[in-house]
Amino acid sequence: MRLSQATLGHVRSGVDLPAYDRSKVTTGIVHFGPGAFHRAHQAVYVDDLLASDPGWGICEVSLHSESVAQALTPQDGLYTLAQLDAETRLRIVGSVRELAVAGRDDERIMLRLADPAVRLVSLTVTEKGYCLGPDGDLDFSHPDVIRDLAEPTRPASVIGWIAEGLARRRAAGVAAFTVLSCDNLTGNGHKLGRAVTALARRSDPALADWIEAEVRFPDSMVDSITPATDGALRERVRDAIGLEDAWPIQREAFTQWVIEDRLGPGAPDLASVGVILTDDVAAFERAKLRLLNGAHSTLAYLGLLRGHETVAQSMGDSDLERLLEALMTQEVLPTLTAPRGLDLPAYAADILARFRNPAIRHKLSQIAWDGSQKLPFRLLGTISDLLAMNRPIDRAALGVAAWMRFVVRQAKTGAPLVDPMAGRLADIGRSCSGDAAHDVAAFARIETIFPGALAADARFVAALERDYASL
Ligand code: CS2
């Protein structure tokens, strides 16, 4: 039997079920990007919230693939969350009320975006989904943005969808919704707001003024280690719940969501389900991106080069474990200001403990995706700050050199390179000769990754050449 509203009563005992009557739930949120992370994180907070407020059901919108809609629509949006940690906990999540696919369900999506009952639009579209240039502003040469401007009522990018949804609300005299970015980039809400406003201003300056005056784009930091779903998880979940679940999700027990305290009136009461509302999101974002994600990317590229497959396995490699500890404590921590109430050294130690979680098989190859989009936030910011303080950059630079070596290896062996810049990176990788000065220069010339000042800093280049040669 397949998991669905009709078979929910057959779920084995010991599995938590939605603690509310799903027939009473109405749609209050539109979410773009129903990937594993969203369904392990935001959708679970909302599932908790629905027990006290049924007005926050989620309409999931996929921009590029029908796979999630195909998997969950027959399940009435229900799926299993497997929390794999010191103890295992399974729960059936019921907050997804409907699913839509851009290009197939455009009118339904637009109706939802214009629906007064929808007061929150959230996103997990990954860094590349924002169509930003190296300056953090909207890239008007991006093909999706060009399409958004040409056909605003059939948007290609999430930026275009949000702008068009807001245009319809303004035209109908409906109050704006709040837009909540849940992606791993610093100042995510502010950057998103600037991008949406810039797009609107090209075609309708009055709309742009209205967006600037009426629409809230709070920053947020999100955190929970969520490996991609694999066959082993599907089998484990089928045995545990006694039903077929086409797309269960797995994650660690730890979860954290920090949102800038300006969600606006009528927003969901996320604080009631453990979300931290603060005016100090930037400090939380920077700490998490540089400590956790910076360590993750460093571990991914070095671990793959050393033949490891998962994060936990790499943490069993004492060289890598010592390197990460030194990276975090001696190079990242000095660039951070502790957010109120956060003990940074303890936070760093907790991250390393989370990486050691043997119940989670987090593949390094997944973390290695999209390096061109991730390195600037995760390692290059740390390096720039350390250079400004005239402090050593040895470990952070090693992570960047390992990325270069990884790209060269993938390119030369024809192995897959998952990255929006895969074509250009593969060309560079194939042109590399093994001569450190030549190869490093070839990568450092990529201005959308390496800011000019950094690429021209002799200390940075020397560290990269030394590490690239040693690798
Ligand atoms: C990981 C993140 O895949 C990756 O790049 O570093 O998804 C990481 O697991 C999350 O940010 C943890 O909150």
Can you offer a commentary on this structure?
The chain is built from 20 helices and 11 strands. The protein is α/β, with parallel strands linked by helices. The protein has 2 domains: 8-278, Rossmann fold; 282-470, N-(1-d-carboxylethyl)-l-norvaline Dehydrogenase, domain 2, CATH 1.10.1040. The protein has a 5-stranded parallel beta sheet with strand order 5-2-1-6-7, sandwiched between helices. It is globular and about 65 Å long. Bound molecules: D-mannonic acid. D-mannonic acid is lined by residues 184, 223-225, 292-293, 296, 366-367, 374.
Provide mean pLDDT, rounded. 97
Bound molecules: D-mannonic acid
The Cα radius of gyration reads 22 Å
CATH architecture of the largest domain: 3-Layer(aba) Sandwich
Give the CATH topology of the largest domain: Rossmann fold
Which blocks of ≥5 consecutive residues have pLDDT under 50?
A: none
Oligomer: single chain
What is the number of domains?
Answer: 2
Structural class: alpha/beta
